[in-house]
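Hi all, posting the design record for the shared folder.

TITLE: backbone redesign
STEP: 1 of 1
STRUCTURE INPUT:
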C-alpha cells in the first residue's frame, strides 16, 4: 500500500514519480527536459573547451557548444495527484558514474536516440536492460539527419519487441509529453507483467 504524504496544512501531496532522460552526447536530453518542465529546469551545462573536445567525440554534433556535466532536472505536475521529476543524465562516458545514484527509485527511462550517432545509445540501453529498468527509445528527429523506419532503429539497437520505439522532436512540448506518456504506460505494463509472472 502506498503511503500518503501531507503538507503542514493537512493537504495531500502529489505522488512523486522519477523519470530518467538518457542517451548519447548531443542527443537532446537537456532540450527535452527544458521543453516539458513546468518550472525553469535546473541545468548543469558548461561551455565545451578545447580540452573537452579532445576527450568527447563531437563528430556529427560539431555545432554543440555546451555539455551537461552533472544532470538536468525538471518537474511536471499532473492534476495535483502526481509530480513527475525528470532527471537528464550526462551523455559522456566520463560522467556515467553518476547514473547509479540518479537511477535509484526511478519508474523508468527515456533513451533519446540521434540517428547520426546511433551507437551512442548502446550504453544507456545496456544500463537499463541490465538493471531491469523499463525504458523506451525516442528517436529525436534532427533536421538534415537521415530518417529510418522505427523497426530499423529497433533492429540496429538489438531491442526486444517489447521495447517501444517512437519518433519525437525534443524541442516541442507536446512531442515530449507524448514520449513521457508512452514511457509511463510502458513502465506500468512492465510492472503488471512482472507481478503476474
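Okay, here is what came back for every position:
SEQUENCE:
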Amino acid at each position: 500500500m502506498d503511503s500518503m504524504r501531507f503538507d503542514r496544512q493537512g493537504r495531500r501531496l502529489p505522488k512523486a514519480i522519477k523519470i530518467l532522460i538518457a542517451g548519447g552526447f548531443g542527443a537532446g536530453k537537456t532540450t527535452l527536459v527544458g521543453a516539458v518542465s513546468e518550472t525553469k529546469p535546473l541545468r548543469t551545462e558548461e561551455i565545451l573547451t578545447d580540452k573537452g573536445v579532445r576527450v568527447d567525440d563531437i563528430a556529427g554534433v560539431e555545432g554543440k557548444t555546451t555539455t551537461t556535466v552533472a544532470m538536468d532536472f525538471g518537474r511536471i505536475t499532473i492534476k495535483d495527484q502526481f509530480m513527475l521529476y525528470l532527471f537528464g543524465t550526462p551523455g559522456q562516458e566520463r560522467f556515467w558514474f553518476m547514473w547509479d545514484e540518479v537511477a535509484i527509485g526511478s519508474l523508468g527511462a527515456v533513451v533519446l536516440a540521434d540517428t547520426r550517432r546511433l551507437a551512442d545509445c548502446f550504453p544507456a540501453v545496456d544500463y537499463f536492460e541490465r538493471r531491469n529498468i523499463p525504458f523506451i527509445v525516442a528517436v529525436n528527429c534532427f533536421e538534415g539527419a537521415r530518417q529510418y523506419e522505427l523497426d530499423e532503429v529497433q533492429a540496429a539497437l538489438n531491442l526486444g519487441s517489447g521495447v517501444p520505439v517512437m519518433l519525437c522532436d525534443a524541442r516541442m512540448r507536446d512531442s515530449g509529453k507524448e514520449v513521457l506518456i508512452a514511457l509511463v504506460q510502458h513502465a506500468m505494463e512492465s510492472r503488471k507483467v512482472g507481478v503476474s509472472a
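COMMENT: The CA atoms of residues 119 and 157 lie 8 Å apart.
Let me know if anyone wants the other runs.
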